[in-house]
Write a structure and sequence with these properties.
By secondary structure, the protein is an all-alpha fold. It is 72% helix and 0% strand. The chain has helices at residues 3-18, 27-47, 51-60, 63-68, 73-87, 92-103, 116-127, 133-143, 148-165, 168-185.
Amino acid sequence: MNSEIVEKVRIFVEEECKKPTSKYGYEPYLFHFIPMHKYAKELAERLGADIEIVEIAAWLHDIGSIINGRENHHISGAEIAEKKLIELNFPRDKIELVKKCIFNHRGSVNLNKESKEEQIIADADAMSAFDNVSGIFRAAFDFEECDQLTANEAVLRKLINSYNKISIDAKKIIEPKYKAALLLLGTKNEHK
């Protein structure tokens, strides 16, 4: 494994998040990319996947969103990743594997995952939501202009959807946080 390339990719993503042109600022790096990478690496180690491919794809999976915005970010992200990895002289066959992970990571776009690595990136992306509940609330309040009750329902729905679309291996890891979310967010409507 080439840990030097993994580190260069991580730095590239962090620097893109720091730029004034970043669509969402620096927070996604701290509150999404870092936990997502942690879960991806953990799953890769557990499942015997290619850790190098997984780590690189984890860092780059949402780069299209950071640079160009959310719409079709799985497509633009794969293109950005290819360009960056060619620049770093990463092997062409491995670039294609990273691109497939990025292209197929979105839970809202149900694409066929052909490899363990692709499933891991999709799982880790969904799992990271449980480490960023405050960010999901922020999006509900700031971007969707929800009131508190509607925001609570939206966050709970997102977490339930995230949990339901991940693999059994990922569920085993995230289940305590899922149960905590249900306990904390699932009781708000009892006093209607």
